[in-house]
Specification:
The protein is built from ten helices and twelve strands. With 475 residues, the protein is of the alpha+beta class. The protein has three domains: 119 residues, Beta-Lactamase; 94 residues, Signal transduction histidine kinase, dimerisation/phosphotransfer (DHp) domain (Helix Hairpins, Orthogonal Bundle), CATH 1.10.287; 151 residues, Heat Shock Protein 90 (2-Layer Sandwich). Strand 1 and strand 2 form a beta hairpin.
Length: 475
């Protein structure tokens, strides 16, 4: 549920629920009084009660507006009696504690009760005369002869009308109480559904600020808060990945410094040694000097090649080298690459064999310059680790439903199972070949192939060589 809808439901509940509860209380009250106690509660009875009070007030006004002497006249007494008869009321006229007129015969006890009730200040309790309850209103008079007296107006009390008043008061109190209680409960639940997720977010933010990026942020609360939690969780994961990547780069930087220091130390030491040999006069013949200088040139070339490989790999790793893709016939392209490499390989007694298993011409998108570097690196790597007197590298070209597979298989030393997963990592070299290169050849090849959206992997044939597999998408 979204926050806006929750607020609407909460506000509506604070009104609807009290109304429903009040209606249920009203139904229960009516059932108890009507069915169980047998009392009738209706609006008509309430109107009747109001009418009685109105008639009683009119009767009192009529008496006060006339001279008190008229109370003793028979016509006026009948007039008062007729007014009260409409509400089934009774009349008593008292003079000097003596009843001089009454609408019916009252006992002395009834008269005493009525007088006592009429003389009470602030209203009185109903007086029961016979089987009927009456409200008594007393009007004090002074008669013509100077004697004191009073007129007692008795209005019948309708119990069902009184019950209706009680009923309405009960409904009002019930609504107010349930409204207050519902507001408290709804406010508590609403604040809990909002404040609890916010508190958890605050705790998670505090953990992140302390550097703990492993504290997950759960999606909870309303939709808006869940979206906030989801965004913060995504931010936490990205931040964690960023920190992890930074640490990885730091480790790689340390390994890079270590590897470069080791790789450059060997040829630089050799150059230094041969130069000192020339300066010290150890190379005392022209042939020896020439041999020393050729060695110095070879080692300098190795250092230059290491630096070039390092710069190329760094640019590839940072995606700073754009690829220039061309639609290329893969068979013709491989033949040209092999033709260029063949003389050097033959000088090292390595034979190249090419086998095309494609049923028809196939084309791929290649950056021909970069892919040539891949082929040369793999062939050069095979040459370095060739142990046989007559080396052999087979290039097999075949396809699958969606890709072209290039396999370069040599008959060299092979790769141990422990080394196989790491040969495409930068600076990784097996122990027996520690000094045979920069350790970036296959890493560069992997970067270039992945830049072509392809894949590269190795298969070791143990003592009978290694296959490097390249997969490229067909056009």
């Amino acid at each position: 549920m979204n926050l806006k809808k929750r607020l609407i439901v909460a506000n509506a509940s604070t009104v609807v629920i009290p109304i429903v509860i009040t209606v249920l209380i009203a139904v229960a009250f009516l059932f108890v009084f009507s069915k169980i106690l047998g009392n009738d509660i209706s609006f008509e009875n309430y109107q009747r009660l109001s009418q009685i009070k109105f008639e009683l007030q009119n009767t009192e006004t009529s008496v006060l507006q006339r001279t008190p002497e008229l109370v003793e006249e028979e016509d006026f007494q009948k007039h008062l009696q007729e007014q009260l008869a409409r509400i089934k009321g009774k009349l008593m006229i008292i003079k000097e504690q003596r009843v001089i007129f009454s609408s019916q015969d009252f006992s002395k006890i009834d008269v005493a009760k009525a007088l006592e009730a009429g003389n009470m200040k602030g209203g009185s309790e109903p007086v029961v005369i016979g089987d009927v309850s009456f409200n008594v209103q007393s009007i004090d008079l002074k008669f013509k002869d100077g004697s004191q007296g009073s007129v007692l107006l008795l209005a019948p009390v309708d119990q069902s009308s009184t019950n209706l008043t009680t009923f309405l008061v009960l409904l009002g109190v019930s609504f107010v109480l349930t409204f207050m209680l519902c507001n408290i409960v709804v406010s508590y639940q609403l604040s809990r559904s909002i404040l609890k997720p916010l508190h958890n977010l605050q705790s998670a933010a505090a953990e992140i600020s302390r550097g703990n990026l492993d504290h997950p942020i759960a999606e909870e609360g309303d939709q808006e808060i869940q979206a906030l939690c989801r965004d913060l969780e995504f931010m936490r994961i990205k931040l964690k990945d960023s920190v992890h990547t930074q640490l990885k780069y730091e480790d790689n930087r340390k390994m890079l410094i270590s590897s470069i220091s080791h790789d450059l130390k060997t040829p630089v030491t050799s150059i230094k040694g041969y130069v000192e040999g020339i300066l010290d006069g150890i190379a005392n013949t022209p042939d020896k000097i020439e041999r020393y200088l050729k060695t110095i040139s070879l080692k300098a070339h190795q250092v230059d090649q290491m630096i070039d490989d390092l710069l190329l790999y760094a640019k590839l790793d940072l995606n700073q080298i754009p690829f220039d893709f061309e639609r290329t016939d893969i068979e013709e392209y491989l033949l040209l690459c092999l033709l260029e490499s063949e003389p050097e390989l033959e000088s090292n007694h390595i034979k190249l064999l090419f086998t095309n298993e494609l049923l028809q011409k196939q084309y791929v998108l290649l950056d021909q310059v970069r892919m040539k570097r891949v082929i040369m690196n793999i062939l050069d790597n095979s040459r370095k680790y060739m142990s046989n007197d007559q080396g052999e590298i087979k290039i097999l070209l075949r396809d699958t439903l969606a890709s072209i597979i290039i396999e370069l298989r040599d008959n060299g030393l092979g790769i141990s199972a422990g080394d196989l997963p790491y040969i495409f990592d930068r600076f990784y070299r097996s122990d027996q070949a520690r000094s045979k290169g920069s350790g970036l050849g296959l890493a560069i090849a992997k970067q270039i192939i992945e830049g072509h959206k392809g894949k590269v992997w190795a298969i070791s044939h143990e003592e009978v060589g290694t296959s490097i597999m390249i997969s490229l998408s067909k056009l």
